[in-house]
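DM from R.C. (forwarded with permission)

"hey, sorry to bug you on a friday — could you get me a structure for this? deadline for the figure draft is monday and I only need the backbone to look sensible"
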Amino acid sequence: MLVVQPFLEFEDPTQEPFPLSQACNQRLLDAIDSVFETSGAHRPHVILFPEFALPGVEGVKRVATRLSSEAVASPTIVIAGVSGLPKVEYEHLCALPNVAVVDDENASARVQDTEWVNTSVTFVKDNNGALSLWVQPKLSPSWPEANYHHQAMFQGSLVRSFRAQFDNDVPCRFLSLLCFDWVGQETGLPVPEAVLQAFDLLCRDKGSPQDLQWVFVLQHNRSPNHPSFLTSTYRFLTQPSYPFVRRRDASVIMVSTASSRRPARSGPYGFSSLVFGPQAPFDSSGSRPTFATQPSRLRQSDTLGACKDVVFREMGECIHLFDVRIPNFVVADPTDRTAALIDAQALPLLGDVVDPRIPGRPVPAVVKWVNDELDNIPDFCATYFTHNPIEPALRRAHAKMVDGYRYLRSQDLALRIDGACASRAARDDSGADPAADVDTAWDANERLGLHHVIQTLTLVGGAVNLDPVDAQLHARSELGVEIAAIAGATHYECLTAFKKFAARTHSPIVFVARDANNAVHLPREAESFADPQSHSGVRFTDAQTLLTEARTKPQNQYTQFVAELLNVDDRRII
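My reply, with the result:
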C-alpha cells in the first residue's frame, strides 16, 4: 500500500465549498505525478489519498491518465478524496468517460444549486488493464460543513463495497468512508453500523457469512484521536453484532492529511494508521522503524484497548509506503511471529527533500525522535550570548553539532541519548537495546539529556574543533579527547551513570555533568570523582561552570580555558 499524506492549504477566508489555495492546488497536481513515479518503482496494489487531496476534476483526470499508463501495473486500486466541488464541477466529474456507474442516489441532478459536494473516487485498474471510476459523496457532514454560511453539503446515501481477490484466489472485500462518515449518524445509527447492518442483511439473504478485510477512512481531521473516532474504530472491530459480516481479520485504515509541510511529531491532523482487531496475530513489542505498535503515548489515548494499533510516526507531509500482512494468512505461533507491516518507508511527497525522517527508506524510531527534538532545541545563544563577541563562533558550533546529530546512525543515537540520561543507567535491563522503549518511555529525561549534550558540545565547540560524528561518547576533539555530557537529578547520579558510559572508550575524557538545578558542583564532589578504572585520564566539570566561563571571560581567555580543560592525560590501560 501507498498512503499519500499531503499538507492542505485552503483559500482565505474559508468558505464553502472549501476550495484549496491556488498554490496548494498546483502542489497537489505535481504531487500526483510524484506519487505515480514512486508507484512505478514499488508497484503498490493500493494507493490512498485523504479527504480533499485531489485538486478538483483536474486532479481526478490526472490520476486516471497516470493509471491508464502501461507504467502502472494491473491490478491497481486508487481511493482518493476530492477537493470541494460546486454543482457544475460535480456534473463534470460524473460525466468523465471512465465513470462506471453514477447511482441514482448520487446523481448530479439531485444536487441543488445551493449545495456543494465532498466526494471520494475509487479508481479500479483491473487485471486486463481496463480503468473504471466509482463516485461516492460523503454521507455525514462534519460541524464545519454543517455550520455553513453559503452552501450546504450535498449528502450522499450510498456506500459501495468492492470485491477483489488475493493472489491465492481468496476473496478480499473493502469499502471506504469520508472522515465524519466514521462517526456521524444519519439514519438513527452511526454510519459504520448502518453499513454493517445493510451488509449483514445481504449476507443473511444469501445464507453465507462474508469477510470484510479493509475499511479505508479518508480524513482531513484536526482531531484524529478524538474519543468518538477511536471508539467507533474499537466498536467496529470488536462488537459481536452483525455476525454475517466477519471482521476478525479486518483492518481500519485511517488515511490522514499532514500537520505541516515539514516533518513533525505533533500538531492537528496526522496520525495515518492501521487498526486491527484484538485477535490479529501480530507482535506489538519494541519500537520498530517508521511506525509505532505501542502508540498510546503518541495518541495520548487508550481508547483502542487491546486492538492492534499501528501508527505512522511522521505527521508532516510525506508518502507512507509499506507491505501489510493479512491476518488470515499469518500462522499464529512462533514460526510466523511478525509485525503487521513489513518494510515501511517514509518518502518525500515532492522534490528532492533531504531529511533523515523522510529518506525513502525505513526510519528508526530514535532517528525520528531525535530529529523532532532537534527542531525544537532551545536557542541558548540568543538567551545568553546576544551581542557577545563569542556568539558567532557558538552559533557555528551549534549548527555543526545539530547537523552532525541529525545524520548519526540510529545505533549511535540510541547509545548517546541513553548515556546522556543518568536515570537510565539505574534501570535493570542489562543487554537491552536502549532504542527498544522509544515509543513507550522516552520523554522529559531523554529530552533534557539531548539538550544538555547539544549545549555542552556547542560551548566546547565554540572554542575548539569538535567532531560530533566520529566519537565513542558524545563528541571528540581533534586531540583525541572524548566529551561526555550527562544530566541527572544530582551530580552523584551523573557520576554513577558515567562509570557505565565511559566503558565505551579508552580515550581521555572531559565529563560535563548537569544536576536538576544546573548547580555548580561542590569541591568535595570533584574530589570524590574518580575514573571508573581508578586511573587518570578524566576531567570533571559541570554545565553551569562551562556556561559561566563562556559568558564572563573574553573570547581568547575562554578559548584558553577550554584548551586547558581538554588537556587531559591519557587513560592508561593495564
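R.C.: lifesaver. The two ends are 57 Å apart (CA to CA).
me: no worries. The chain has two domains: 2-363, 372-565.
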